[in-house]
Each structure stands twice: as C-alpha cells, then as structure tokens.
Amino acid sequence: MKRVSAPFTDNVVQELRAGDEVLISGVIYAARDAAHKRMVDLLTRGEPMPFDIKGQVIYYAGPTPTRPGEIIGSAGPTTSYRMDPYAPLLIQHGLKGMIGKGQRTEPVVEAMKKFKAVYFAAVGGAGALIARAVRSNKIVAYEELGPEAVRMLEVVDFPVIVAQDCYGGDLFVEGVKKYSRPSP
C-alpha cells in the first residue's frame, strides 16, 4: 500500500503504476460533468478557474445530502467517461490526478502520458465507506449545481487503486490478461 499526499507533483505521479493500491491524504476536489463543462469553458475563454488546477486531484463524485452531524453524505465515484470530453484540457493545464470508475478514452490516456497524470479507480457501491476518509467538505464553486458543485475535500487515507498510469499502464487491460485463460 502506497501513501501519497495531494496535491501531486510530477515525481509523485511518476512513482505510481497501474495496480498500485494507494491511500491519498490532503486536499482533493469533487466535481462532476456540469462543473467540468463550466471549468473548461473558463479555460477556453482564458478566465481563471475557481481553484488552482495545478497538481490537483479531482474525484468524480456528487455526494448525497449530508446528514446532521456528518461531514459529507455517501460519496461514491461516478462513471469517468462522462468527464472525458473535458479531462484532456484540464490535464494540459496541470490536473495531476482523477478518481472515478470505469475506463478512460484514448484522448485522456494520451494526455495523461504527455502531461504526467494518473487515473485512480475507487470502488463503486462503497460511497458510505469512502465518505469516512473525508475530514472536511466545502463548496468552492457552482453551488447552484447541488451535488455537482465543486467541493474541496480534505481526506485522510482515501482508498484507491491506480487504474491507468502516466506510462500507459492500464489495469483494465492488464487485469484481463492476468486472469484470462488461453482457449483450449
């Protein structure tokens, strides 16, 4: 199990390989498709982002409502490919990590290799368990989007697996090969 602190440097990203089990501590941001579209629109117009994207990790999640006395509601990952139209530009501008579920498209993988970024898989269906790693939760942009608002999360030992690394390593491909049996 590797432990890393967010935000990330290139060195942190380069030490991670597909299949590594990782615990992330530090600040990450939660955002989904609607917020991604708005952030990319800002970058396209040359306007500032609601937070400095350099070195950051974005968790593709839209937490459920927070119960009284809790920090955050259930915070499971959402399907990552919905962010794929936006991810390459964010990576180009300094995004270093993404957390979600499912595979990424080729343009995202190429951007990850070119600009040194990493994609982590979080376990779908484990939103309540994942929420236990969140120590603080603050909306930093697009509050009107409700669960899709951009949130700054302080996390401790947030559990993920490196799904795709900056070298092109792909757990989705390598895992299938590892457990596939040759045809008789």
What would your notes on this structure say?
A five-stranded mixed beta barrel has the order 2-3-4-5-7. The chain has one domain: Fe-S hydro-lyase, tartrate dehydratase beta-type, catalytic domain (fumarase, Alpha-Beta Barrel), CATH 3.20.130.10. The protein is built from six helices and seven strands; from the N terminus they run βαβαβαβαβαββα. The model has no long low-confidence stretch (mean pLDDT 92). Helix 1 links the parallel strand 1 and strand 2. The radius of gyration is 16 Å and the shape is globular. The longest helix is centred in the first third of the chain and has 12 residues. By secondary structure, the protein is of the alpha/beta class.
Annotation keywords:
184 residues; alpha/beta; fumarase; 27% strand; globular
Output the radius of gyration. 16 Å
Domain count: 1
CATH topology-level name: fumarase
Structural class: alpha/beta
Mean pLDDT: 92
SSE arrangement:
Elements (H helix, E strand, L loop, with lengths): L1 E5 L3 H5 L6 E10 L2 H12 L12 E3 L27 H6 L4 E4 L5 H10 L2 E4 L5 H5 L2 E8 L8 E15 L6 H9 L5
Quick synopsis:
It contains 6 helices and 7 strands, in the order E-H-E-H-E-H-E-H-E-H-E-E-H.
